[in-house]
Amino acid sequence: MSSRRVTIVDIARELGISKSLVSNALHDRGRVSPATRELVRQTAQRLGYVSNRAAQQLRSARYGTVGLTIPSGVRALSFYMQTTLGVSDACSEIGSDLMLYTHVDERSRVSLNVPIDGAIVCDPQPDDHRIHQFTEARIPLVTIGDPSDAQRERVAASVSIDFSAVVAEVFRRLDDSSESTHPVLVVVDLPTMPVWLQEVEQAFARECRERGIPEREVRLPLQADDGFSSPASPRRIETSALRALVADLGEDTQSSWIVAYQGLASTLLSLATETASGQPPRIVAVPGDPMSDALDSRILSVDFRAHDYGATAVRLLHKALAGDDEIRNEVHRTSFYRA
Question: What is the CATH T-level fold of the domain 163-303, as seen in this structure?
Answer without folding.
Answer: Rossmann fold (3.40.50)
